[in-house]
Amino acid sequence: MRFAFALMAAVFIPLPSMAQGGASGFFYKDKPIDPVCVQKLLGLGDSEADFTPLTKCPLPDGVAEPDKRFKADEDGFYGFETTEEDSAITAYFMYRAAGRLKNGDYLIETIESGGGSGTFTSVSAIAYDGTSIKLTKKYAGGDRCNGGITHAAVEGGKAVYRYSATPAELAQIFLGAGEYAPYEDLESSAASCAGEVEERDGVITALVLDREQWAEGADDASLSGDYAYQGCFNNYMSSYLKVPAHSETLSRDEAVAFFKKFDATCKKS
Hints:
Blueprint: E1 12-14, E2 27-28, E3 31-32, H1 35-42, E4 52-53, E5 68-72, E6 77-83, E7 90-100, E8 106-113, E9 120-128, E10 132-143, E11 149-155, E12 158-165, H2 167-175, E13 195-200, E14 203-208, H3 230-241, E15 249-251, H4 252-268
Signal peptide: 1-19
Keywords: Signal
């Protein structure tokens, strides 16, 4: 998954040495737009409603001056890292331009960590006029299995992205917000991925499951919580995906039907 590509897995090249800008022209003065500027808009720091001039990108409150800026060799991310004073905790932020939307905005994917266990990712749209940037839309994002981004691209001028979801989140997405309470009925921790939801410009289009993940069903330690319907959920997913003819990718309507069948099966058991 995309959020698994963390700082330790990347190869870094100092940002000033790069001659080329970010993908799809997202660059300023022949260099990728400073990741500090993008973090100001999209990261854990405060978001700006107005255009931010690229000539002056103050660091968000609580963010230390970067120890270094870098290019992550995999997937074209650009970022910076900082080490907190009086500690060995290293925080980082990185972004990539995934393409250009029909209206001219750039689709930006980010990965960020404050140094703890969380890895926060997002997909957003940024307007760029050549000298300043502005956040125009936040599509999706979260921490690992709680909405973490696994794919982002522009297809036909539209934002196409996937994010991870837990059992409880999937049940609420496809059955309704009031169904299956997190940590009571189903697992919902940031380490408990159960599938990926695909959206196009904010509209859910598909559910993507992982046959290999569910091959062992309830043996997945991250999905073994002692919740009312978790065991039945695991068995239901595993039984479905053990059939080779069953697709790992379900349309939105198919996913709704899939979870309605789960609901009928598990609440009767």
